[in-house]
Request: fold
Amino acid sequence: MPRSTCSCEELKKFLRRFSERFPQILDFCTKVLESKRYNGNVILMIVDAGMTSNGVNYFSVVIPRVLKFRERFLLTEEISGLEDLASRDIGDFFEIWKNKRCWEVVKEVSKALLEFGDGVKALRDWASSSSFPSWRDDPLAVRGVGINTFQYLRMMGGVDTVMPDRIVRSFLSKFYKIPDDPVEFILFAERKAKEAGFRAVDLCWIAWLSKYDEERLRKYSDILQII
Reply:
Protein backbone atom coordinates (compact mmCIF):
# COMPACT_ATOMS: atom_id res chain seq x y z
CA MET A 1 0.00 0.00 0.00
CA PRO A 2 1.42 3.45 -0.89
CA ARG A 3 2.54 5.49 2.10
CA SER A 4 0.09 8.34 1.34
CA THR A 5 -2.85 5.93 1.37
CA CYS A 6 -1.65 4.30 4.57
CA SER A 7 -1.17 7.67 6.24
CA CYS A 8 -4.65 8.75 5.21
CA GLU A 9 -6.15 5.66 6.81
CA GLU A 10 -4.10 6.19 9.97
CA LEU A 11 -5.25 9.80 10.24
CA LYS A 12 -8.86 8.79 9.61
CA LYS A 13 -8.63 6.11 12.29
CA PHE A 14 -7.13 8.54 14.82
CA LEU A 15 -9.72 11.25 14.18
CA ARG A 16 -12.57 8.76 14.33
CA ARG A 17 -11.41 7.20 17.60
CA PHE A 18 -10.82 10.58 19.21
CA SER A 19 -14.21 11.93 18.15
CA GLU A 20 -15.94 8.77 19.39
CA ARG A 21 -14.35 9.22 22.82
CA PHE A 22 -15.11 12.94 22.90
CA PRO A 23 -18.12 13.59 20.62
CA GLN A 24 -18.64 16.96 22.28
CA ILE A 25 -15.54 18.21 20.47
CA LEU A 26 -17.25 17.90 17.09
CA ASP A 27 -20.31 19.65 18.53
CA PHE A 28 -18.03 22.44 19.68
CA CYS A 29 -16.45 22.67 16.22
CA THR A 30 -19.92 23.09 14.74
CA LYS A 31 -20.46 25.96 17.16
CA VAL A 32 -17.18 27.50 15.98
CA LEU A 33 -18.27 27.38 12.34
CA GLU A 34 -21.70 28.78 13.18
CA SER A 35 -20.08 31.72 15.01
CA LYS A 36 -21.91 30.74 18.18
CA ARG A 37 -18.99 30.72 20.59
CA TYR A 38 -19.60 32.80 23.70
CA ASN A 39 -23.32 32.81 22.80
CA GLY A 40 -22.51 34.45 19.48
CA ASN A 41 -20.81 37.47 21.04
CA VAL A 42 -18.30 38.83 18.54
CA ILE A 43 -16.58 41.01 21.15
CA LEU A 44 -15.60 37.99 23.23
CA MET A 45 -14.45 36.12 20.12
CA ILE A 46 -12.13 39.01 19.26
CA VAL A 47 -10.82 39.25 22.81
CA ASP A 48 -10.23 35.49 22.74
CA ALA A 49 -8.32 35.82 19.45
CA GLY A 50 -6.26 38.74 20.73
CA MET A 51 -5.17 36.84 23.82
CA THR A 52 -4.56 33.63 21.90
CA SER A 53 -2.26 35.52 19.53
CA ASN A 54 0.25 35.80 22.36
CA GLY A 55 0.86 32.05 22.44
CA VAL A 56 -0.15 31.55 26.07
CA ASN A 57 -1.94 28.51 27.47
CA TYR A 58 -5.49 28.57 26.21
CA PHE A 59 -7.30 26.91 29.09
CA SER A 60 -5.40 28.35 32.04
CA VAL A 61 -4.74 31.87 30.72
CA VAL A 62 -7.03 32.83 27.83
CA ILE A 63 -10.44 31.47 28.82
CA PRO A 64 -10.43 32.74 32.44
CA ARG A 65 -9.51 36.23 31.24
CA VAL A 66 -12.11 36.26 28.48
CA LEU A 67 -14.77 35.33 31.03
CA LYS A 68 -13.46 38.00 33.38
CA PHE A 69 -13.66 40.53 30.54
CA ARG A 70 -17.28 39.53 29.95
CA GLU A 71 -18.13 40.05 33.59
CA ARG A 72 -16.32 43.38 33.84
CA PHE A 73 -17.25 45.08 30.56
CA LEU A 74 -20.18 43.29 28.94
CA LEU A 75 -22.41 42.43 31.89
CA THR A 76 -22.01 46.01 33.11
CA GLU A 77 -22.90 47.18 29.58
CA GLU A 78 -19.82 49.40 29.39
CA ILE A 79 -19.08 47.77 26.04
CA SER A 80 -21.89 46.68 23.77
CA GLY A 81 -20.50 46.78 20.24
CA LEU A 82 -17.41 46.87 18.06
CA GLU A 83 -17.27 50.66 18.09
CA ASP A 84 -17.11 50.67 21.90
CA LEU A 85 -14.31 48.12 21.79
CA ALA A 86 -12.37 49.95 19.07
CA SER A 87 -12.54 53.34 20.79
CA ARG A 88 -11.71 52.21 24.32
CA ASP A 89 -8.35 53.14 25.85
CA ILE A 90 -6.33 49.94 26.16
CA GLY A 91 -5.26 50.96 29.64
CA ASP A 92 -8.81 50.26 30.77
CA PHE A 93 -8.26 46.60 29.96
CA PHE A 94 -5.09 46.15 32.00
CA GLU A 95 -7.13 45.12 35.02
CA ILE A 96 -8.01 42.02 33.00
CA TRP A 97 -4.54 41.42 31.61
CA LYS A 98 -1.50 43.70 31.47
CA ASN A 99 -0.55 42.86 27.92
CA LYS A 100 -0.39 45.86 25.60
CA ARG A 101 0.10 43.80 22.45
CA CYS A 102 -3.03 41.77 23.09
CA TRP A 103 -5.28 44.81 23.43
CA GLU A 104 -3.74 46.53 20.42
CA VAL A 105 -4.70 43.48 18.35
CA VAL A 106 -8.21 43.54 19.81
CA LYS A 107 -8.66 47.23 18.97
CA GLU A 108 -7.22 46.99 15.45
CA VAL A 109 -9.31 43.93 14.57
CA SER A 110 -12.42 45.69 15.90
CA LYS A 111 -11.71 48.77 13.78
CA ALA A 112 -11.19 46.65 10.67
CA LEU A 113 -14.41 44.69 11.24
CA LEU A 114 -16.43 47.90 11.56
CA GLU A 115 -16.06 48.23 7.79
CA PHE A 116 -18.30 45.18 7.56
CA GLY A 117 -20.92 46.32 10.07
CA ASP A 118 -21.33 45.30 13.70
CA GLY A 119 -22.03 42.20 15.72
CA VAL A 120 -21.32 38.66 14.65
CA LYS A 121 -22.62 39.41 11.14
CA ALA A 122 -19.60 41.65 10.58
CA LEU A 123 -17.27 38.78 11.44
CA ARG A 124 -19.13 36.36 9.18
CA ASP A 125 -19.37 38.83 6.30
CA TRP A 126 -15.65 39.51 6.55
CA ALA A 127 -14.75 35.82 6.79
CA SER A 128 -16.84 34.88 3.76
CA SER A 129 -15.02 37.48 1.68
CA SER A 130 -11.61 37.08 3.33
CA SER A 131 -8.62 37.04 1.04
CA PHE A 132 -6.74 33.77 1.17
CA PRO A 133 -4.08 32.68 0.32
CA SER A 134 -3.12 36.35 -0.29
CA TRP A 135 -3.99 37.03 3.33
CA ARG A 136 -1.47 39.85 3.80
CA ASP A 137 -3.64 42.08 1.62
CA ASP A 138 -6.78 41.42 3.66
CA PRO A 139 -8.39 44.24 5.71
CA LEU A 140 -7.85 42.24 8.92
CA ALA A 141 -4.14 41.71 8.29
CA VAL A 142 -3.50 44.54 10.74
CA ARG A 143 -0.51 45.00 13.01
CA GLY A 144 -0.17 42.05 15.37
CA VAL A 145 -2.34 39.71 13.30
CA GLY A 146 -0.22 36.94 11.84
CA ILE A 147 -1.47 34.07 9.77
CA ASN A 148 -2.41 32.00 12.83
CA THR A 149 -4.66 34.71 14.28
CA PHE A 150 -6.01 35.45 10.82
CA GLN A 151 -7.00 31.80 10.39
CA TYR A 152 -8.43 31.60 13.90
CA LEU A 153 -10.72 34.55 13.16
CA ARG A 154 -11.75 33.01 9.85
CA MET A 155 -12.75 29.80 11.62
CA MET A 156 -14.87 31.69 14.12
CA GLY A 157 -16.37 33.58 11.19
CA GLY A 158 -17.58 30.37 9.58
CA VAL A 159 -14.73 29.27 7.31
CA ASP A 160 -13.76 25.61 7.59
CA THR A 161 -9.98 25.79 7.81
CA VAL A 162 -7.02 25.28 10.16
CA MET A 163 -4.32 27.28 11.88
CA PRO A 164 -0.79 26.45 10.69
CA ASP A 165 0.67 26.63 14.19
CA ARG A 166 3.36 24.35 15.56
CA ILE A 167 0.89 22.04 17.32
CA VAL A 168 -1.21 21.35 14.23
CA ARG A 169 1.93 20.99 12.11
CA SER A 170 3.45 18.55 14.60
CA PHE A 171 0.22 16.56 14.71
CA LEU A 172 -0.03 16.14 10.93
CA SER A 173 3.70 15.41 10.62
CA LYS A 174 3.00 12.13 12.43
CA PHE A 175 1.06 11.00 9.37
CA TYR A 176 2.56 12.87 6.42
CA LYS A 177 5.53 14.81 5.17
CA ILE A 178 4.07 18.29 5.51
CA PRO A 179 4.78 21.45 3.48
CA ASP A 180 7.00 24.06 5.11
CA ASP A 181 5.15 27.05 3.70
CA PRO A 182 2.21 28.06 5.97
CA VAL A 183 -0.18 28.74 3.10
CA GLU A 184 0.65 25.45 1.42
CA PHE A 185 0.28 23.70 4.76
CA ILE A 186 -3.21 25.12 5.29
CA LEU A 187 -4.37 23.92 1.89
CA PHE A 188 -2.70 20.56 2.53
CA ALA A 189 -4.37 20.16 5.94
CA GLU A 190 -7.78 21.12 4.57
CA ARG A 191 -7.43 18.49 1.87
CA LYS A 192 -6.25 15.76 4.25
CA ALA A 193 -9.10 16.43 6.66
CA LYS A 194 -11.60 16.09 3.82
CA GLU A 195 -9.99 12.87 2.62
CA ALA A 196 -10.33 11.48 6.15
CA GLY A 197 -14.02 12.38 6.23
CA PHE A 198 -13.71 15.26 8.70
CA ARG A 199 -13.89 19.03 8.57
CA ALA A 200 -10.67 21.02 8.68
CA VAL A 201 -11.79 22.68 11.93
CA ASP A 202 -12.31 19.21 13.46
CA LEU A 203 -8.74 18.27 12.60
CA CYS A 204 -7.45 21.55 14.04
CA TRP A 205 -9.16 21.28 17.42
CA ILE A 206 -8.44 17.57 17.77
CA ALA A 207 -4.77 18.31 17.07
CA TRP A 208 -4.73 20.88 19.87
CA LEU A 209 -6.59 18.72 22.36
CA SER A 210 -4.90 15.40 21.63
CA LYS A 211 -1.71 16.55 23.34
CA TYR A 212 -3.41 16.42 26.74
CA ASP A 213 -3.82 13.45 29.04
CA GLU A 214 -7.20 11.81 29.68
CA GLU A 215 -7.99 13.77 32.84
CA ARG A 216 -7.32 17.17 31.32
CA LEU A 217 -9.07 16.19 28.10
CA ARG A 218 -12.29 15.55 29.95
CA LYS A 219 -11.91 18.74 31.97
CA TYR A 220 -11.19 20.87 28.91
CA SER A 221 -13.96 19.26 26.89
CA ASP A 222 -16.39 20.37 29.59
CA ILE A 223 -14.97 23.91 29.53
CA LEU A 224 -15.49 24.16 25.78
CA GLN A 225 -19.19 23.59 26.29
CA ILE A 226 -19.53 26.97 28.06
CA ILE A 227 -17.62 29.03 25.50
